[in-house]
Design brief:
Elements: H1 6-25, E1 35-39, H2 46-60, E2 65-68, E3 71-78, E4 81-88, H3 94-98
Parallel strand pairs: 1-4
Antiparallel strand pairs: 2-3, 3-4
Length: about 100
């Protein structure tokens, strides 16, 4: 899996803090009602991706679950802000085979 390096992680955190401060300092600027931070395992089989979500879920104290067909996820909420790790399975739609 390839996630943010320590430098990239620090820049992301700084950017999130800067955004929060900017919205705080500029109440005239519209803000969304909620925000989602999404993380996707990049490589691997469906089983490896699901195992990665299980590992992330254990770190954030969440219960992983199937959210839609082929999507396996774990979330942690900070009020209206969500950190969500999502694995998208490689499934084939049965209608794809009908045309073969």
């Amino acid at each position: 899996m390839s996630y943010a390096s320590q430098d990239e992680r620090s820049r992301l955190i700084d950017g999130l803090r800067a955004l929060a401060q900017f919205l705080h300092d500029h109440p005239e600027v519209p803000a969304p009602r909620w925000a989602d931070i999404l993380l996707f395992p990049l490589d691997g089989t469906d089983e490896e991706k699901r195992a990665e979500i299980d590992m992330i879920a254990s770190h954030i104290g969440a219960e992983p679950r199937e959210i839609v067909s082929g999507h396996y996820s774990a979330s942690l909420y900070f009020g209206p802000v969500q950190y969500r790790a999502v694995a998208i399975g490689e499934h084939q739609d049965s209608s794809d085979k009908e045309g073969e």
